[in-house]
Amino acid sequence: MGAGSVIIHADHSNIDDIRNSRRTRKTLKAHREREKFFNDLWKSVGLQVLDKDDKRFKIEFAKNGDNTIYNSTLLRIALLQNQELETWQIYKALHNAFQRRGYDINVPWKNTKSKDDEENEAQVKVYTQKEGVELIQDVQYKYPCYYDALLLGLWEEKTPSTFNRTTKINPEKVRIGGRVAPRSLVIRELTDLWISAQKQIPELRNTSVEKFLYGEYREPYASYSNPDWQQFMGRIEDWQGVLGQKIPRFNNRIISKCKLLPKRNVCGADTIENITFVLLQKLHNFRYVNSLGETNCRLAPYEIKKIYDNKINAWVENLEDLKKNNKNHSFTITKKDIEKL
């Protein structure tokens, strides 16, 4: 009895779902760490964290007759307008403001643009618009919270201090994949929210805006760009601050496509693989005039090997020294190297 043909479906070895699940877990973990930082900061100055099981945290709209503002978006606006709020309302406003960090088009390690990058940049450019028309005209209201409230029907520019306590019929969604806030607007809002919070809560005044945003680093991407913090690159310290972001630690996480093999990614510029390749390419492309006056002469394979063997050890030492001391070193082939042959 024949078993017949074994049919293997096209998506049999597809790992898209697994990859997406892994990314989701990492994103949630990073978010929890930023929330933990904010809660620890809040408690460190003697303030009480609003528990997520608390009714005031859960509900967004009050019952009839209750004038208390519960809506997170409206609380952010009220805080920006320096309206007097209770401590739990300020906590809820700040907590909600960093739920989305926005998209930064100028991350320092970016060396190429993927399709996702191009789509995100295009979405960032039209974040403040609808069908090509600016939603908010006055620059003082160009904050993510105002845009969210406008889409929900909770706020209008012509009456900036008046809030609608219920959303409009069929409000537009504000948390959708195609709507990405620029990081610059998120930073602007969080900065002004923290300054406004310090005016109402004296205990917060000893904590700078920079620490609130970036933790002990006090600057964005410090473990990547600041030598004093590079030892913490890719570690949990990167998650400090409400805008903390874990920096890719390995060069193959900051990738561009190889020029020789387009289907593969390049190795890092400061790796021995790249230095070896550069050295061999220089020797392969080297041309000289020999003692007989013949031009355009090439090095023989054994000559290339001899120069390579003489130079590679020194280059490796220079590379290690470069990584430790951040000094400049030469990775070149000199006339003397050729004359040694």
What is the gist of this entry?
Helices cover 43% and strands 2% of the residues.
Characteristics:
341 residues; mainly alpha; 2 domains; two-stranded antiparallel ribbon; 4 strands
Written overview of the protein:
The protein has 341 residues and is mainly alpha-helical. The chain folds into 2 domains: 18-252, no CATH class; 272-339, no CATH class. 43% of the residues lie in helices and 2% in strands. It contains 12 helices and 4 strands; from the N terminus they run αααααββαααααββαα. It has helices at 16-44, 55-58, 72-80, 87-97, 115-125, 144-152, 183-200, 209-214, 222-225, 272-285, 301-325, 335-339, and strands at residues 129-130, 133-134, 287-288, 297-298. The chain has a two-stranded antiparallel ribbon with strand order 1-2. Helix 10 runs antiparallel to helix 11 (301-325). The mean pLDDT is 82.
Layout of secondary structure:
Elements lengths: L15 H29 L10 H4 L13 H9 L6 H11 L17 H11 L3 E2 L2 E2 L9 H9 L30 H18 L8 H6 L7 H4 L46 H14 L1 E2 L8 E2 L2 H25 L9 H5 L2
Antiparallel strand pairs: 1-2, 3-4
